[in-house]
Amino acid sequence: MNAPHRLAINGAHGRMGQQLCALAAADARFELVATCTSATDFAALPAFEVMVDFSAPAGLARALDHCERHGVALVSGTTGLDPDLQQRLDAVARRIALLHAANFSLGVALLAQLVAHAAAALPHWDLEILEAHHSAKRDAPSGTALALGQAAASARGVDFDAVKAIDRRGERVPGSIGFGVLRAGDIVGEHTMLLATRGERIELSHRATDRAIFARGALHAAAWLAGRGAGRYTIGDVLAV
User: Fold this and answer.
1) Going residue by residue through the chain (241 aa), what tens digit of pLDDT does each one get?
2) Helix/strand/coil for 24
3) Residue 129 backbone dihedrals phi, psi, to 5 degrees
4) Which residues have a Cβ under 8 Å from the Cβ of 32 and sit 6 or more positions away?
5) Assessment of whether the complete model's pTM goes beyond 0.70
């Protein structure tokens, strides 16, 4: 059996961070050597092979700096990133193995592939993405919904920013990709892509009922990413293995 990967978790006090810590402690693939919060002195961290980050944009920026400096892999599920931080991810991925995803469910990874296939096969059908999450979620639409929209736009060969319709008023613009958002109760996460034309429609949906699926997926990605060469990887790359 191979030696366990030395793992650090950033955002350890958050809901996802606590779930990650509990699962990693019982996972033979890992030795959990550091749990980080916004108060952690990153310069004092022990050596590790891969970090899993579920923090906030500022926490991700600190994790990027540290992982780039030490040449270690980084898996991140932090959302709500501004364009500068998105560009920073691309730059750092030239020097380390990096996987950033809005959703670490393997089911959602497969949904994204199905969405791309359907959008390309039916390029003139109306396309809407509906999502629902718990009432405390801050970003809307969710990062996962936006990622599904980007997958559809890419498959159709169009610029996502030019066709996305988040704050819609009035009639639907042909060729647009619309988004609907619900926030209520303790909904873990639901995403549906709806393709419609006159007389028929198709719906592709994923519903999460247990938040642990995201932590398990992130740890699966971390075990896969550790030791790989520099590059910007996706959860779809993990799914393909």
Assistant:
1) 588 999 999 999 998 999 999 999 999 999 999 999 999 999 999 999 999 999 999 999 999 999 999 999 999 999 889 999 999 999 999 999 999 998 899 899 999 999 999 999 999 999 999 999 999 998 899 988 999 999 999 999 999 999 999 988 889 999 999 999 999 999 999 999 999 999 999 999 999 999 899 999 999 999 999 999 999 999 889 986 5
2) helix
3) -125, 125
4) 7, 8, 9, 21, 24, 25
5) yes
Task: Return the active site residues.
Answer: 133, 137
Written as one letter, the residue type at 201 is R
Pairing of strands 200-208, 189-197: antiparallel
Strand partners, 194: 128, 203
Closest of 103, 121, 110, 102 to residue 195, by C-alpha: 121
Start-end of H helices in the chain: 15-25, 57-70, 83-92, 106-121, 143-156, 160-163, 212-225, 235-239
Distance CA 87, CA 230 (A): 16
Give yes or no for a cis peptide into 141 (omega within 30° of 0): yes
- At position 26, the amino acid (one-letter code) is A
Domains belonging to the chain, first-starting first, are 5-100+212-239 (3.40.50.720), 106-208 (3.30.360.10)
| CA gap 217, 219 in Å, rounded | 5
Sheet holding 73-76, edge to edge: 30-36, 5-10, 50-53, 73-76, 97-100, 231-233
Contact 53/75 with Cβ under 8 angstroms?
yes
